[in-house]
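[09:14] KT: can someone run the structure on this one? pasting the chain below
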Amino acid sequence: MDLEIEQEGVGQVEFLLEIPENLKRFLVLDTVTVCIRGKGFVALMQEFRDEQFSAWYSIFDIFQGPVILKARGAIAVLELRTALRNTIEGTWEMQPIGSLEENHFQMGFTPHVATRAVFPVPGIYETFDIHFTLRFLESLGIDYGMLARCSEKVQRDYPAELTRHSFECTPLMRDCIHRIL
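[09:31] RB: done, structure tokens below
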């Protein structure tokens, strides 16, 4: 993983060599797993990838909230962010995203990762993110106005959201995500 993760007000998180017992039920076969722990939380992040995308299924067990995590990295991504369970707040590439409610998604591009995720209350939070390469999206022939404007910003290495609003996942989208997992 090419990310640096820290807990706001606490410092660096601990990377675990073993998966905590309470998170083993969320394991997806054939993924690269990363487990972290900090004050009041433990998390399991699982990645599966190919040359055109990287998908992450992550579970955050917050047992003493709020927990604020900051991630940084020199990774350019066009990201589909989905909250599967509970509402996550914070900033994405230092831009306020408001609340990403359960079963809602957002999409945007960033030339580098600078995310601040706020888990406001204790509970299990699940997310599913897909990081697409711009080359992949262009190969699909997608050339809608919003994507074109986003793509122009991408070419200049500026963060760009397709929209500031989140959208509700349709039942079919939720079913597809769970079938992937």
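[09:33] KT: thanks! Residues 145-155 form the longest helix (11 residues).
[09:34] RB: yep, looked fine to me
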